[in-house]
Amino acid sequence: MGFLGFIKGFSSVYRAKPRIRVYPSLCQYGYRHIQCRTFSHFKDHDDSVLPVLIVGAGPVGLVLSILLTKLGVKCSVLEKSKSFSQHPQAHFINNRSMEVFRKLDGLAEEIQRSQPPVDLWRKFVYCTSLTGPVLGSVDHMQPQDFEKVVSPVSVAHFSQYKLIRLLLKKLEDLNFHICKPEELSDEPFRGGELLTGHECVKINATGQSVNVTASHLKEGKHTERNISCNILVGTDGAGSTIRKLAGIELRGEKDLQKLVSVHFLSRDLGQYLLNERPGMLFFIFNTEAIGVLVAHDLMQGEFVLQMPFYPPQQSLDDFSFETCKHLILKLVGQELSDIDVIDIKPWVMHAEVAEKFVSCDNRIILAGDAAHRFPPAGGFGMNTGIQDAHNLAWKIAALVKGIAPSSILHTYETERRPIAIFNTALSVQNFRAAMAVPATLGLDPTVANSVHQTITDGVGSILPSGLQRAILDGIFTIGRAQLSDFLLNEKNLLGSSRLAKLRRLFEEGKSLQLQFPAEDLGFRYLEGALIPDSDSVGAQEPPTGHRKDYIPSSVPGSRLPHMNVRMLSNSCSEACISTLDLLPGDNVEFLLFIAPLEKSYHLAVAALKVAEEFKVSVKVCILWPAETIKGAEARSKIALAPWENYIDVAEAKKSSNSSSWWSMCQMTEKGAILVRPDEHIAWRAKSGLDDDPILEMKRVFSAILKV
């Protein structure tokens, strides 16, 4: 299926019917009340109604709760599990997510200090066993990845459960209370609580609020608790209860692959790989077993083994702790005395996106895996979810603070759902690339899946289950014989041909890829809380599956380009920061970039006047050339008086050949750029403004804030 066909699978007209209906809600009958500037409960505050309730305390829910709390929005979090999982799960954090983490009180720096050294995880290794011949390896890091030219921070390799620990600590630093069911009182939620062991079982959206019923175990009995909130955000994972209760369907491809995930520890294996062949992923193909080993931390010896799983002929009982130890040894290729299997989980790989992210008059919202389920290829799942939270937080804050009406929340879906669809297509494409390696070795996974389907649903379905299992095992054994030393070597004509083809696959970048800078940093919103211009026309190019470099852009909807700038102030004249650091993480504030020109100063004054009228904060950034001398601040002070919400900065070029800010943005210095609180560009004037600046700024803020 091509990219356009894949996209059509998400876009056909479809009306969902709730799969779980507990209470009828007004939104299910198409009810919409007339929009006002804010929800009524935000204007006439009722302590019994929580502004925001987040269901699901994974990385996305925790990041959203931190962002909202820093923005001054009261919120609480419900988590179904009584304790937080120690399974490593997601582990690759891309550039954009790390940029978000830089705003969370030093979180990015903590991750960089705590993660393994990059030389221990930069490669994917393909081999017949962990101690046997290497079929090839791919280094996914390039010199520019460390130069911090396109981003102030590099990617990271850091297990999800470790990330959750750090996020919980950040919440506690913000005076959040993490409570177990037995520690609760019967008082209404005030915000700032994270409740474990609470499962959402009912939701009822009314014209005024969303009423949530949560079940928890207290003194051995199931007890229900009712919580009223203005906004309910479901960040409760791929099997989202909130999504099901809201009657929101998923669209896309189901059941791409079933796998078993084995979490285990072995310091001996970690030390061996650290010294002999360090890497992040190890793809292992031999006659006795096939699997992908994720090295979460070689120094600690922490791993997750992923193996294909074919129910109903196989069951989870077939993967006992002892069986898994045996399979690990087959893949390692030698004895290990310290294998400690921690956990064994089955899971299913899907490629689906929710038909809508916002429902019930903008009161119920989905984010993260609740809104989209990707193959793990490329690490887009958690990263897309974190960026969902970043997009959503400032919009919720704008609504709660009376800056924007509830329609601002619909722009979250308008902007983020196309990104989710694109990232789904890219993840599927990358997953197919991963399957090209075993196919080249004579083990085409599509053939294995077809055989399994024939046995399960076709002519083989009439056979006894034991015979089905024997046939499946026999076919797979014959298939793995393609990997024998006799066949897979340079002296064998067929084996030599396959190995040569495999080398070309790696050299041409047609195997599984880790980094996609053009997509990680270069994704762009086409419509929403922004004003497109003539360069905004046209959808994003289909994914190629290959790594492409990020090209900075100032087109509305794009992420603000990164450049180091020098603060022009008497106290810290040599201090350098990123342009991304000019936006605060604790205020709904827009940033207007201008050059120190008379007409640009006039535009800035107009923006400040209009912003005051719209009750929104705007800071003006006057960006001076690198060779700026003293006196710049005095000029801005005179030009912008009596306004004081501005900052003077100068370009901090690495070399004389470096591009200027305006040329990097493909604009003239007569232009201006307005940036949203989430660091995406909302509007620009490429080469100055001929219209009345007051009227233009009113048009701009009306369109962005939907007022």
TrEMBL record:
Any one GO molecular-function label of the UniProt entry: oxidoreductase activity, acting on paired donors, with incorporation or reduction of molecular oxygen, NAD(P)H as one donor, and incorporation of one atom of oxygen
Pfam families: FAD_binding_3 (PF01494), Rng_hyd_C (PF21274)
GO biological process: ubiquinone biosynthetic process
Keywords, in A-Z order: FAD, Flavoprotein
GO cellular component labels: mitochondrion
Domain FAD-binding: 51-420
PANTHER family linked: FAD_NAD(P)-BINDING OXIDOREDUCTASE FAMILY PROTEIN (PTHR43004:SF6), TRK SYSTEM POTASSIUM UPTAKE PROTEIN (PTHR43004)
Protein name from the UniProt record: Phenol 2-monooxygenase isoform X1
